[in-house]
Write a structure and sequence with these properties.
CATH class: Alpha Beta
CATH superfamily: Alpha/Beta hydrolase fold, catalytic domain
Number of domains: 1
Largest sheet: 8 strands, mixed
Radius of gyration: 17 Å
Distance between the termini: 17 Å
CATH topology: Rossmann fold
Order of helices and strands: EEEHHHEHEHEHHHEHEH
Strand content: 15-25%
Strand order of the largest sheet: 1-2-4-3-5-6-7-8
Helix content: 25-40%
Number of strands: 8
Number of helices: 10
Structural class: alpha/beta
CATH architecture: 3-Layer(aba) Sandwich
Length: about 240
């Protein structure tokens, strides 16, 4: 299996960003790490190996990106609006740097967003905000409303709420979405969500599922036994859904 390391100084983030690419062909998969995670975690946790057969067959090519969560969403030393501004820069880095880079390496038109835990939030929020650019999104053990405390997970914006918070939380902007072109693009998107029956995020996944059905957006919500919020379970889920 081909494994390649890349790094460049991002003009959007004004810092060096690293990523790993696995495979040689197939649908391009943007893989987001968990909270504060690194570009090499997906490999270290055995998820790349779990997908080895699919990757070596040329069905998918993984682009495992780095995070800036502790500079953005989890930067508690910064006021909420600064966290959001950094997160917006990160989205620009993904869309304006990583996606074009992936196209240079691989012209396959199929683009997939994927992640686990907070990585699932990154994948789903990005794909739902820009559905015309993606063919599929796979979120494992994700949280899709960052404003509502869930178990030990706090409101990431400390009570602050503005238009940017609204547009970066799928459970907030989807219910009010009436743009026919965006809705049609979302209905063409293959959406797969998976979460454990004891995961603190279960109710949030079910709420998002209800919103999608109300908008006529087909998707699959898979509920796994136990908490299922760990690498061992994600190694089982990934081959099923990617």
């Amino acid at each position: 299996m081909r494994r390649e390391y890349y790094a460049w100084r991002s003009p959007r983030l004004q810092r060096t960003m690293e990523l790993l690419v696995f495979g040689h062909a197939g649908a391009r998969v943007l893989v987001f790490p968990t909270r504060g995670g690194r570009f090499y975690d997906y490999e270290n946790w055995g998820l790349v190996d779990a997908l080895r057969q699919t990757i070596e067959a040329g069905n998918i090519q993984l682009f495992c990106v780095d995070s800036v969560d502790y500079e953005s969403l989890y930067a508690r030393h910064r006021p909420p609006w600064e966290r959001l501004a950094r997160h917006q820069q990160y989205e620009a880095y993904i869309l304006e740097e990583v996606v074009p880079f992936s196209q240079q390496l691989n012209p396959n038109p199929h683009l997939i967003a994927h992640g686990c835990s907070l990585g699932a939030y990154h994948a789903v929020a990005l794909a739902f905000r820009h559905p015309q650019r993606f063919r599929k999104v796979v979120g494992l053990s994700g949280r899709y409303d960052l404003t509502t405390p869930m178990g030990s997970f706090r409101d990431l914006f400390d009570g602050h709420y503005d238009e940017t918070v609204y547009f970066y939380n799928p459970c907030h902007f989807l219910p009010q979405l009436n743009d026919p072109e965006l809705l049609e693009a979302l209905r063409r998107l293959e959406i797969i969500l998976a979460v454990g029956e004891e995961d603190v995020f279960l109710a949030n996944n079910q709420a998002l599922s209800s919103i999608l059905w109300e908008k006529g957006i087909w998707h699959a919500l898979h509920i796994w036994p136990g908490e299922a919020h760990c690498a061992a379970m994600w190694r089982q889920m990934a081959p099923w859904y990617l």
